[in-house]
Specification:
single chain; about 300 residues; alpha/beta; five-stranded parallel β-sheet; two-stranded antiparallel ribbon; Protein KTI12 homolog; tRNA processing; nucleotide-binding
Amino acid sequence: MALVVICGQPCSGKSVAAVTLAESLKESETKQNVRIIDEDSFHLDRNQNYANMPAEKNLRGKLRSDVDRSVSRGDIVIVDSLNSIKGYRYELWCIARAAGIRYCVLYCDVDEAHCRQWNKERSDRGEASYDDGIFEDLVRRFEKPERRNRWDSPLFELYPAREVIDKSSPVISEAVTYLTKTVDSKTQDVRILQPSIATQAARFSEANSLYELDRATQEIINAIVEQQALGGAISRVTLGNELPPIEICRPIGLPELRRLRRTFVKLMGQSSLSGPPLPTDAESAKRRFVDYLNREFGGNNA
């Protein structure tokens, strides 16, 4: 079994690379069973998938769940999507490690100009393409894979703008060798991720922390909305439970509160990859969110 994460900018040749790799694996000496998991399998328009953050989060959740179910079937699973967020690639790496399988990233390295041109050509031909605004947003938020990150390693790099990607491509051949090579006590160039109690506990802990974070931040939002709904101008939202008050000097609408909440949760998730872990209890999560809101409101009031 193995998990291959295809990564690249929108319209960078990822699907061609995924199909080419799958065909090469099927024709290899080991005759591998291969399954491609992609966005088209959910029958959603690509612009709908990335129209807003909730839609994009929902898409990643569906892909991740499908990967989690598939890695135990004995196939090589190829995830054909943008996979542009390093935190998301880390989640896929965790799935591979928990399953005890091989893992690699296949990166289609194409400059933005070519991606933009190919997207326009697809649109002109009436094929599936990205709207201009969504395309530019995805390009701006792309996080390039780096070999030093364990969730981006081993990294196989393709250059579709410079060379034709087919089954004879050296990088495709290298990836096939890595994914099919027999592993024994003397094999040193193939890495099979090993599950551990620590890994499984970390996954459970992270899921629990995200739940607590989501619940705690929503309670804070509800408290702000309720106290503002009582009428009259307020400059302080009190929360009790030894939490500091939230200082405000203007009405804060629900859309703004939701935006701040989404940003906070995203920042917490990103910082947990290299910094302090997510809070594991509701009170800690509330305190961090209150501190964040006070900084934000303080900056807005200045």
